[in-house]
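Sequence in, structure out.
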Amino acid sequence: PKGNMAFAGKYEFEGDENYDEFVKKIGLPSDKIEMGRNCKIVTEVVQNGNDFTWTQHFPGGRTTTNTFTVGKEADMETFGGKKFKATVKIEDGKLVADFPNYRHTAEICGGKLIEISTSSGVVYKRTSKKIA
């Protein structure tokens, strides 16, 4: 199967690829770039059918939460704190959202949460391991 859509759980940042290139491409300010580098973000996902609450816990107590229903427009917040509206879709067992300046996908693969963001040809990949 292409992913069983069982996203619920807590995941801790394990590693990423192309971070610097990606955050520069989307225009993150340098203080945010430093803050996010190798940041032990814990992603907590609560899933009830097609309803999701997706929370990122940053070291130091800051959190970002996006609540959405697959297929319905929702108010979201980006990596850099910008607010926007997006409709999250499911494609091949992945959650897909088009952010203002990048496309984000998330999937569960081998017990890990794999998130990929793509902006003008730069692909940023973040892997988090399940901790709960």
